[in-house]
Amino acid sequence: xxxxxxxxxxxxxxxxxxxxxxxxxxxxxxxxxxxxxxxxxxxxxxxxxxxxxxxxxxxxxxxxxxxxxxxxxxxxxxxxxxxxxxxxxxxxxxxxxxxxxxxxxxxxxxxxxxxxxxxxxxxxxxxxxxxxxxxxxxxxxxxxxxxxxxxxxxxxxxxxxxxxxxxxxxxxxxxxxxxxxxxxxxxxxxxxxxxxxxxxxxxxxxxxxxxxxxxxxxxxxxxxxxxxxxxxxxxxxxxxxxxxxxxxxxxxxxxxxxxxxxxxxxxxxxxxxxxxxxxxxxxxxxxxxxxxxxxxxxxxxxx
Length: 303
Prior knowledge:
The protein is of the alpha+beta class. It has ten helices and 14 strands. The strands form three sheets. Strands 2, 3, 4, 5, 9, 10, 11 and 12 form an eight-stranded mixed sheet that branches. Strands 1-14-13 form a three-stranded antiparallel sheet, with no helix packed on it. It has a three-stranded mixed sheet with strand order 6-8-7, with no helix packed on it. Helix 3 crosses helix 4 (136-146). The chain is globular, with a radius of gyration of 19 Å. The relative contact order is 0.23.
């Protein structure tokens, strides 16, 4: 297991009220966390590893800016044609004895990625992936799935497609802080974009999303460049730590330090649940995380 270091992160603005209430009224039983899956899309670029970030309207436990993802749904239990590592294998990789839960997270990850970006980890066989998913027909299918007019499994079955679980890689498991009003227990996965596919925003609710260079975003973390570019009321003038949950920021750090997609994906990760805790530092409320150091032997600066 990599060495764990104590890290401090700023408290995002939308959690300040919940944090104050938690302290004032004494600690209570945390609200139940909803199960969620998120997919970190990756590609190599001349400037380094790039990933897809999107704006999330409202108050999302995944952050104002986040990787594609969201809550698991009942339909994620539906029968689906499956290619690649078995649900049993996924359960082992994810450190759980609950094979059904592991299966739900994998199906939910592939569904959420499709809804939010149009990237579809599916194909008729293990050597082929579906191509050109940016057509109006596919956009209609995405909207229908996002609005729960059609199930994701029906969309696949109609086209003779199976989910390609071999195209996903397990990353980490993050649990929202105990004091948050909306809490997620999120399994993060990684994937590269299949041939002849390109992420696009969902017509019905996409506001902003694009490929960002991980090293550039981390280098500019203390500026408001990204928040200003997104241009929303709750992003303008804010630094990176106020836009992302700690888990996303740490993953971006690791991408910035990695020498390309293959290096990042082949890094050995052990199943571990990470959870930010509320602490007071110098009269200021912050989030504390015990997380692996980004680069072995390099001291982490506290944020």
